[in-house]
Amino acid sequence: MRVLVQRVKEASIAIANQMVASIGPGMLLLVGFTQGDDLEKVRYMAQKIAKLRVFSDSLGKMNLNLSSVNGELLVVSQFTLYANLEDGNRPSFTQALAPELARPLYDAFNQRLEVEIGQRVKTGVFGENMAVSLINDGPVTIWLER
């Protein structure tokens, strides 16, 4: 399981020029799954992200988590996090989990995040072609893998 975490001032998702989700300050998560991923990894990653201290305290030090700053969360499924470019120039996605197996993990991840942060998680639409917009704050971008 791979998650690219971006601290954002705002982020949104549109499909066919129609806004489907947006947040103010918080985190945008791009999430991908691979063989061997399971509910235990989902639980671990949700807990890790909920506790991740990437927001600045009064001294300007990254010391606060999402709940401490009343931040929002926007989660996007992104199988391309498992792109492989070892051979040639066209990415291979064979390491990405098949959609019918990834979707239940994606749904479970979002549900677990809601439990961990105590608020609704906004999401994209699994499997859709989405336009993701964001204003990265910092920039702060962190790669998590389990």
Global outline? globular
Q: Regions with pLDDT < 50 over 5+ consecutive residues?
A: none
| Helix proportion range | 10-25%
Largest sheet: 6 strands, mixed
The name of the CATH architecture is: 3-Layer(bba) Sandwich
What is the fold's blueprint, element by element?
Elements: E1 2-15, E2 18-23, E3 26-32, H1 39-51, E4 55-56, E5 62-64, E6 72-77, H2 99-117, E7 122-123, E8 131-145
Parallel strand pairs: 3-6, 6-7
Antiparallel strand pairs: 1-2, 1-3, 1-8, 4-5
Tell me what you see in this structure.
The chain is α/β, with parallel strands linked by helices and 146 residues long. The protein has a single domain (2-133), classed as D-tyrosyl-tRNA(Tyr) deacylase (D-tyrosyl-trna(Tyr) Deacylase, Chain: A, 3-Layer(bba) Sandwich), CATH 3.50.80. It has 2 helices and 8 strands. The protein has helices at residues 39-51, 99-117, and strands at 2-15, 18-23, 26-32, 55-56, 62-64, 72-77, 122-123, 131-145. The strands form 2 sheets. Strands 1, 2, 3, 6, 7 and 8 form a 6-stranded mixed β-sheet that branches. Helix 1 (39-51) runs parallel beside helix 2. The longest helix is centred in the last third of the chain and has 19 residues, at 99-117. It is globular, with a radius of gyration of 15 Å.
Describe the structure using short key phrases.
alpha/beta; 6-stranded mixed sheet; globular; 146 residues; two-stranded antiparallel sheet; 8 strands; D-tyrosyl-trna(Tyr) Deacylase, Chain: A
